[in-house]
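User: My collaborator sent over this chain with a note saying "see what the structure looks like." That's all I know about it. Can you take a look?
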Amino acid sequence: MNAAIALPADHLRLLHALKVSARVAVGFVWFWEGLVPKILRVTPLEIEMVARSGLWISSPEATILWLGIPMIIAGLTLMSGWLERPAQFVATVSVLTLMVLVIRNSPGAWHDPYGGLAKDACLFACSAVVWSLSPLTTRRRAP
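Assistant: Without extra context I'll predict from the sequence alone. Here is the result:
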């Protein structure tokens, strides 16, 4: 059932602000995670995880670098709002995939207080906000 919801303008502005805040938060995490731990400050633990996975090309270090570049691009795309819902869908599926790979290759991630599982839960929540509010807050051109 697709019933149109009529909301007061101030509610729409608030929902739009919430959606943009959630979208920017998700995008910032992708940007940061691509830049800092993948390019600027690669840790021996990350290199070891990639090496142990066997899912690397050329070398674990090169694979981490080449993973960081699309993460930065994805972060900028998410923050910009371009293809908002498809971008959130791809980001969510990617987070799930990376979570499975990390946990499979480093089971200690389940209880690591500095691990990404709590962060990933926040990413899911923010993506759900963007996904849910996008149809309500995206301006459509009149035909």
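A starting point for your reply to your collaborator: The first helix runs from residue 9 to 40.
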